[in-house]
Amino acid sequence: MNNEELNQLCLSLLHADTESEVIQLLHKKGFWDDTSLWRYYGDMDGNYSIIGSQQSRPEAALVEKIINSVDALLMNECWLAGVSPEDSSAPRSIHEAVALYFGGNAKKVDTLGYIGYWDDKKRTEVSRFATLAATGSTKNLCFTIADAGEGQTPNSMPTTILSLNKKNKQKIQFVQGKYNMGGTGVMRFCGHRNLQLVICRRNPRIARNMTSDDSGELWGFTIVRREDPLPGEKSSVYTYLAPVDASQRARMGGVLRFSSETLPIFPDGNAAYARSGKWGTVIKLYGYDATGFRSHILLRDGLLSRLDILLPEIALPLRLHECRDYRGDSSRSFETTLTGLSVRLEDDKARNLEEGFPKSSPLSAGGEQMTATIYAFKRGKEETYKKKEGIIFTINGQTHAILSQDFFGRTKVGMGRLSDSLLVIVDCSNLRRRACEDLFMNSRDRLANCDLRDAIERELEIMIKEHQGLQDLRERRKREEMGAKLSDSKPLEETLKSILKSYPSLASMFLAGARLPNPFKTKQVAAADVPYEGKLHPSYFKFQKLDYGQKLKHRTAVNMRCRITFETDVVDDYFHRLENKGTFTLRIISNNDVENVQGYSLNLEHGKATLNVRLPPIASVGEVIEYEAKATDDTLLEPFVNRFLVTVAPSQQVSPAPPKKKTWPPIDEDGHGRELPTGFAIPEIKEVYERDWEQRKPKFDRYSALQVVQEEAADSDTPGNGSPAVYSFWVNMDNIYFKSECKSSKQDAEILKARWIYGLALMGMSLIQANSEAEKSEPSDESKYQSEEREPLTLVEQVFKTSAAVSPILLPLIESLGSLTAEQISTGSRSDDG
User: Fold this and answer.
1) What is the model's pTM?
2) Of 3.40.50.720, 3.30.565.10, 3.90.226.10, 3.30.70.270, which CATH number belongs to 3-69+124-320+331-338?
3) Coil, strand or helix: which one is 441?
4) In which residue ranges of the chain is CATH 3.30.230.10 found?
5) Phi, psi (5° rounding) for residue 814?
6) Which helix H or strand E contains 205, and what residues bound it?
7) I want to staple 202 with a disulfide (CB 3.0 to 4.6 A). Which of 133, 189, 207, 361 is the partner?
8) What is the per-residue pLDDT across 513-567, written as a single tens digit (0 to 9) for each?
9) Does residue 666 have a cis bond before it (omega within 30 degrees)?
10) Degrees, nearest 5: CA angle 552-650-591
């Protein structure tokens, strides 16, 4: 084939949108059936074991290709600056590289190194260098990822972009890719034959220095495919077309190549290949599995929202183009810039987030330092940005693992009411390399099962449970939903208590003598006279009620956590913002030696910073531990240093007790206070009618019966101690079986209603109690971690599904068993004997 024919074949493959078109093109050229012209991917005949074990979700695999494009753009700029990316003078981090090469000043990493500080014009301009275009149809979707990065020569493609397990990026500090395998994860999601087109050209300015490579000025291209296992072989194998000089080296030939100054590889509007590039890399994925995002990629349920979650703080912007034929809506946009979830929310937080959010909390687990950022969405706004995601773990802006929003409904967390509205991003960029390897799978889409994961989850549970801002939001949401009047529910409450008192076994099973707090905090202790307005930088950061420099003495039981309160005058986002961000460190001082604390979290809210510290596992009763807490930022001449002594007390059993008064700093003689719980109530029961079904989550229908909503966490670090978790109950009064029974039964309607409500309430309480007992037991190694692929039903889901299943028989069962006589039982027994 001559140069023009090769050029045309490359473009024909690029424009093809089905596997059959690709195969037909290769058949015509005599390439498809001749296996001697196809080279093993990575030069490994057993490569399926690596390629087939990458990401488990198609969108997570797609992200790896985008990350590779960002890496290529940064390396391109490094080469053009006359520095090898592996050189010690190269940038030491992704954001330093962004600040240097795209911001013009490496010293302003905190601003220029983050695209959140760029204006829209600059984001759009840079995004033209890395694009993703959707072509084909809704049933046969293709993605083309193109970038103007460093590119590769045809000769180097087998050892770079088509290799496996090479250490091409291991020594480069400012790129995300490391393992030389993540980019292969997309293959299993490409159609039946797993076809992928790869086109590359090295930047000519870089290629000039590659004197030993005679292909430096050429474009190279190939098709990757999956070959089924032959008789006697255990697995499939991935190969790519490499017919150049293949006769000289069996299955070790080079990729096809041709000469051209430019190639139309970039999209423009909804035209997929309208803009030319002079170098770079193009990847086309045929028949991609787009389960869950087949629609217009820029719509709410399209690809954009998934990429926002998986790349919440992408280092460089990416331009997305919808190039499929969507007719009938001329106003619909066909392109936009992907900037990541964090940037999108920051740009428009007033409309999407609750006031005062996002909020951040430094935390440490297993001695590793992280920052958790909490986003609380306004009602209904979360649907645009997330699905079931709850906690996202990121490194350099890329999601490496996700825990579902069910995390917030855990008994120890107590934020079930806010589950749909919460998203927490945990920045793990400062984890040591070994910790990253322990915590994340190489596929970068799920957590590994390890002690560090346990430690992180424990710290997150405490941090979220005790976050004052979330507690206030939970209370406000509850008032909005249930109303402030308790009198409406008093008859239900009193009747339910009467039932329990009449049956000691029920009272023992459900309550175990514990007093449940009132679902509303109705007694006002004190109110702040003015809203809190923090300063950009703190003028003080000290122990509450003590002068700066004084040591605080504290006593903590060996089986409990130590809680210390600081007061300050700084803004809430002090430990989260990018520019002049505050840092908090906590160390143990012992004999002039220091060590980082293994586990703690710090919640900063309106001038009160609450530190929650896990005592060292080797702490002994009577021991005195000295801690040093340090808060600082780049603008402060000296850090704020506070030392406190903790005396380890004997183990303590927690019993239910009235909650203590909580106060806001600064503390004065009059005090600024909170609200105190008063009285107690057995679960708040609310009636739900058809007009309200759509507002419930999960959504009610005519078969739904009971929903429980967690209002407060269990008040103890140790299962079985302290006050139990608090729930509200929502009973469907328009359930089809209940309404049918009301129409056909001769029983008084009020009695039927009472049986319906109390029967479901008792069943719900029983399920909650069973769940609580299960949580007290230490899970086996096999069940300790649940697969992210198939998560177990949450307590809320268990109650919702079980009550719906029981609803057809609930009232007939109560009626029939309640009227059962001794004579009927005796007659039934004789009949059985007969």
Assistant:
1) 0.76
2) 3.30.565.10
3) coil
4) 348-474
5) -60, -45
6) helix 204-207
7) 207
8) 333 334 344 333 334 445 788 898 999 999 998 999 899 999 999 999 999 999 9
9) yes
10) 50
